[in-house]
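Q: What structure does this chain adopt?
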Amino acid sequence: MKSLKERAPKLTDFAKGTTTLAFEFKEGVLVAVDARATMGAFISSNNVRKVIEINDFLLGTMAGGAADCMFWEKYVAMQCRVYELRNGEKPSVAMASMMLASIMRQYRGQGLSMGTMFTGSDKTGASLYYIDDDATRLRGRLFAVGSGGTFAYGVLDTQYRYDMSLKEAVDLGIRAISSATYKDSASGGVVRIYHVTNTGKWDLIHDAIDVSELHYQFERSKGHSGTGTENLPKKYF
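A:
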């Protein structure tokens, strides 16, 4: 049987973009996301919440189709609650991520559009997983997902260290998202920062940092204007 992508390619081939990232460090997991929603070249919103608060110990991120991510991650929240009622304890982060990956496996090829990160804290501490609509499930230390992920990796790969303090991790997350939003037209809006602790909970660190001035602040700290015109001949002005 042909998949939906083969039978109706135009139905599933829609333009989208975002920047989401998460990384492990000594104090847990740091999650940073932008807030722009796009439909092709049309910017429909700059205030989307791309971190989905699944429950009091799990967070999920949104990249791809917003409806798919929201619905299925909330569905996993329900499954986690059912598991807790039946067994008298919360599922582990690994088990919760496997619940989502199993759903993706059942619907593979049927038109879902999801590239998510699952993170949370249980008895073993904080952990981080990547899951997408092809049912790929990866345990990792650092991920950047979305159209701006390449630019975010450029910052993360040069400055990431596992032994960072919480302040250093927050600053790095802000810097990476800001860089991606300046270079990727499908990313923008505000930066939201979450911290998943090693003790079984998560905290919202920053809810809405406007990215419009962050790039210029960072460039001025290096002695640049941020416009990229410092060394151009005057004839270009």
